[in-house]
Predict the structure.
Amino acid sequence: MSRRPPEPVELIKQRRDRALAVLVEAVPYIGFLGVSFDRRGDELTGVLSYDPKLIGNPLLPALHGGAIASFLEVTAIMELSFTLLWDDVETGRILADSLSPATLPRLPKTIDFTVDYLRSGLPRDAYARARVNRQGRRYASVHVEAWQDNRQRLFAQATGHFLMPSRDD
Amino acid sequence: MTETEGMGQHPGAEGDGKVRIARQFIAAIPFSGALDMRLENIGDGIAVISMPWNAALVGDPKTGVIHGGAVSALMDTCGGAAVMCHPEALAGTATIDLRIDYMRAATPGQRITARAHCYHVTRSVAFVRAEAWDEDRARPVAAATGAFTVERPAERPKP
């Protein structure tokens, strides 16, 4: 029995990075916040690069609760969207080269989002990882955790529910 | 969690004139300024703050609808302002938790206005409800409930 030779690693990386880049570039608010994403396989880490405009309390100083909530929600939606797009791109249903903001599938819509502020956000970079706890045809539940210096010391976490885009949109 | 080391921080100030403090409070917050928030009304535990539509805040490129995170930031700022203008003099506050329900997409191009009500205060916690609208005042775009820390001014020694 003959097996197909494995794909060249550069090609795989190029395809996956391209899919992620198109998703990130499509959403203006991600650029406004200064969020980028590190990818290891299908695992994403959101990175909020510190900027003085993200401050909510200049006296401490501390990050704005709204900036933290935004970072968490952006990371949750990206995790969910990338999970969907990953399947399309890896199975060849969507060709990565043909992806553009215009041809991108619709994004999930937030139904509700609950943020738990555990400690003050320091004026430095922050990181976040999201986990899709349930993904159905119509609804998804996503948990997201954010930290700064120490992965074990979360400074915020959130759970959100999302309406999934319909496939024929 | 300690009160001095609060989360989702807002600046506080001691002294007179809660309305003046609240206006300073908005003006002094860099992230609220970056979102171009404007204090519309404030007093007795109720705050109204608005934010214009801006292409940089869009979350869904196909519809031009503002990202939920920007609406969260508006709700959080408005909730904090409502706590700080509560009749019991408060020195500052931080968000403990905030839940937002997104009822519908805000219409692109329209200003979003949030109204928050700090409806109960204990020694340590302030409870807040908030709603937000675009120009259609009959149908809210989002609702929020939150708990905030209560940081009281330091007791002054009696003369």
Summary: Chain A touches chain B through 49 residues (CB under 8 Å). The helical segments of chain A are 9-26, 28-33, 65-90. Chain A has three helices and eight strands. The first strand of chain A starts at residue 35 and ends at 40.
